Structures are given as structure tokens and as C-alpha cells.
Amino acid sequence: MNFSFLAIVFVFGILVVIHELGHFLAAKWMGVRVERFSIGFPPRIFGKKIGDTDYCISAIPLGGYVKLSGMVDESMDGQLTGAEYEFSSKPVWKRIIIIIAGVVMNFLLAILILSIVSFSKGEVVYPSTEIGSVGQMGIAQRIGFEVGDKIMAIDGVPITTWNEIQTEFIKNLNDDIRFDVMRGAEKLTLTYKKEWFSEKNAELLDIGWVPPAKVGEVKKDSPAEMAGMQFGDDIKRINDTYVKNWNEMTALIKTNPGKPITVEIERAGKAQSIEITPEVFTEKDSDGNEVSVGRIGIYIYYETYDINIFQAIENGVKNTFALIGLNMRGLWWVITGTKSASDVIGGPIMIAKLAQDAAEVGWDRLWNLTAALSAILAFFNILPIPALDGGHLVFLILEGILGRPISTRTKLVVQQIGMAILLTLIVLIIYIDIRRLLF
After folding, report:
1. Most buried of 161, 162, 227, 426 (most Cβ within 10 A)?
2. Are the CB atoms for 67 and 47 separated by under 8 Å?
3. pLDDT tens, 91-107?
4. Shared domain check, 375 and 427
């Protein structure tokens, strides 16, 4: 079975199961009977009834649901008997706990995943602010960036790493952004103008960094390993040619396939010379022709700092809130007409594509995607939209304020309207997904 397909199933499955498990466990805790635990929306395909609960798989793979006795929900079941085990028979505070439990579980899942990834990988820093590529998809060309520019500050905030460029740019989106840049010996100020933000892809910089000419991970059994290269070695020269960055270094290595080269490195403040013969590989040039290139088996250098479990949890919480904050801003941009829905919103097809791409890169990227989607699911589920958890929460808050329950008829009508809105949104999002893939 295709690994990418399994990755898609994994991401969708874990998000749905964790969310519905929150409702399920809270309902059991509060003494409410759970009639059905479904992965997917009806019609039901297969399952098994254990005790009072039907655990099943349903046909429409766009989510899942937990059916509680005595709850007027998307099933449109309005029959209440007043039995003690029914949802409607419980105090408002217990029902609120059951309703928000799914959102809380998704929120905690995001924090857990991001904390574990942060702890296992450490603090990753990309130690360069030099631009190595300026793409055409984003806004970088219009701002005036050129290859070789070094970003020194953004809106007066000093910049020393590529991580900070990404953070400051996203933080200041939908506002004028001032970039202080060094272009050779010349100091420049480049400006991102607020009025550009409504344009397509204006939230993307689309610039790539230039890694330093230093050794990152060394591939096992590679020419670099056999020559004794180590992580952190600073490469100064190749065959008497001085190199300033990764691009210049790799260009020289590529032009010497199978030929011995002399690499001058600096290690712990001391200069050394190493003889290496690059392996011969075949790749296609810009015209599509196959050419031979040399590689020595080293990866891009970045700095990693070990962190303790408390710092990892802090990072997990901080990054989860940052994801939710970014989604709140995105929704506001759509509501105010600043950005179109097609620029901001993605649905199941886009998520599947992201899961496939992430799986091809590695499990850590797939886990990061799962955490991001879990945070997004928590945010959107708590919005006050009928048929979502936020819609049910509104009814409960009104009941608490009024001191009496909202009538079953009113709930059914609102739920029907909510389901119609939700289905319309699903169709619209799938249309946006398909259009994005095709065009």
C-alpha cells in the first residue's frame, strides 16, 4: 500500500479519534450514555456494539461524531425521555465539559506533539540572513530583494537568524514592514506596503536562505566521512578558491566529479587541509540534459541546542497558541475581505496533499503537520456555528443565563440551518481545493 496514502489516513484518523475520544471520555465521566462512536459521517458501513455503544466506521471521511443519549445534535434526534443517563438531564456545567472536551483534546494533542518534537530535535537555528534565492510566487521581487542581500533588521528589530526573518514577517503581516538590508557595502531600506496584502500570495516572501560554508550532518560511508570531516567544520577554500557560503562551495564540488580536490577547513580555530574525491552522480541541468556532478556527502549546516523538558513544553504551548492566533487572523482577513477565501482556506484535499508531502520529507514533518491541524481543528470547532461544538456551547451558555433550557424545536431548527451552512461550506472548501490543484 502507498506510504503517502497511509500518511493521509494516519493524519485524518488521529485528529478525528482524539477529538471524539474527548467527548466520549467526558460523557462517560459525567454519566451520559454514548449510543455511537463513529469515525466518518453516515451512512454507517460496519462496526460492533459493545455495551450501550456502537463503535463504527461510516462512509463520509470528513470527520466523526459521538452520539449521546438525550442530545439534540446533527442527528436531528429530538426525542428526550428525561432519563438520568441522558445528556439533557445533566447540569449545565457538566454538559459544557462534555461539549468542550473534544476541543480541549485537540488543543492538548497539538501541545503534546510540538513539545515532543521540540524536545527530540532541540532548538534548531538557521544561522544566516543572506538571501540565496528570490522566487516568483511571493512578494519578494516586488519588495526589491536580490540574491546576496543580507537582512539586518525588520521594523527596527535586529535580525541574526533566518528563523527571526520568518517570525517577524508573519507577525507584521497586513501592515507596512521595513527591511534594513546590506547589499554589498551599501545600506538599503526596502518596504513591504500594507496595500499589497490583499493581492494573491502577498503573505508569502518566497525567499531562500544561503547556508554558511560549514559541514552539517556527514553521510555514512561518504567521501566526507572517509576523509574525516566533522559536523561544524568551516570550509574556507576548495582548490585554492575562497568560498563564502554553501552555494559557492557546492558549485565547486559539483564541477569535480571523480577528481581529487583539496578542501581547507577550520576546526576549533585551527586550519587543516583535507584531500577528498567527490562521488559521481547524474542529474539534469536547466535544459533537461543529464550531466555528471560531484558530491562529498555532507548536509546543510544548522545549529541545534539541547533543551530540557520544561523548555520543550513551553515551546509546545507557545507554538500552539501561535498557530491558533494565525488562524484567527486568517479568518478575520476573509471576513473583512482583506484576503479571499481561496488564499487562506484549505480543506480535506489540501490537507491530504500536505500529509503526502510531509510524509515524503520525514516523520517529524508529518507530526508537525498533525499538530498544526489539531490546533486548527480545535479553533474552528469552538466557533459559534450550529452543528459544531461552539454552536452547542452557545445553547448551553444561553440556558445558564436564562435559567431554562432552549426548546427542542428551536434547537432542531437551528441545527438544520447549521447543517445546511456546514454542508455548503464543505462543498465550497472542496471546490477551492480542487481549483487550487488544477489552476
Report:
1. 162
2. no
3. 999 999 999 999 999 99
4. yes
